[in-house]
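Please, structure for the following, as tokens.
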Amino acid sequence: MGTGSKTTEKAANPAPVSLEVRLGGIVLRNPVLAASGTYGYGAEYHDFVDNETIGGFVTKSVTPRPRRGNPHPRVAETPSGMLNSIGLENAGIDEFLAHDWPDVLEEPCVPILSIAAGTVDEYVEMCVKVERAGGVRAIEVNLSCPNVKEGGRTFGADPAAVEAIMRGCKNVTGAFLIAKLTPNADTVAIAQGAEAGGADGLSLINTLLGLGVDVERRKPLLAMGMGGLSGPAVKPVALAATYQVCRVTTLPVIGIGGIATWKDAAEFLVVGATAVQVGTALFANPRAMNEIIEGLTDYCVRHGYDSVTDMIGTLERGDLIEEGVAG
């Protein structure tokens, strides 16, 4: 009797709007994801977030071998953001697959595995191991890593290298492959390289290169000197990059950068993103994703949208936006 009553109640009070979006064949219950490096492996936020309410999360990046990360201090607050130079601290792919991956797969939302490496072969080898482990649905390829065979130049700054990585990974895994793009290069060219290599989707932006200085000590705030800038300060850059990339690709794009409120998320969807990732905001407000989901629902209702997909790419007069006129 109790079960039947609940069923009737759900049928009588359907959701006012569908928030479902698709990444290829993957259905997300809503377009809100937690960004890599801010949500651990999903369980770390159980006290604050019911993972059954979000679209999914991207794991902390995993590397071919264990990494201790960079020396401290490796995080510093900045106006409207933060700098970090964590250094991809993790236990390595083998330890991760043996001890953490089974728990990740138990989470009631879509887990996206983030991988990072120093050579094309290492990226491919990691995909092979993940494929053998089973259960992987989506992989985000972190391209903001130094290419150890090419003198340390960042993979993400070279369209040809990005194309090679994505093609190599595509050949060994059936997972939905997402190329995570850096803003510290020609993002449009990198996106085109990723698409040419067989990427199924794109996520952008990764952090901007930044520096903070302690003037009393006349030293950098971070032990490694420069680090990655994230938070509200980068949102206009991220939004512009998302808009530009969405104009040159048919791949689904996941917008990242300074998203803290539903309005932030709505901006990315309106310029063409299929989904968004929330990162730095979670450190100050662990429930930010739930608030964004509620806000997007209300926005769709107010604007008469039956589905959140109806608002994607609806920026008016988009073709008339001029580039390079600042100043």
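Residues 113 and 238 are 22 Å apart (CA to CA). The chain has nine helices and 16 strands.
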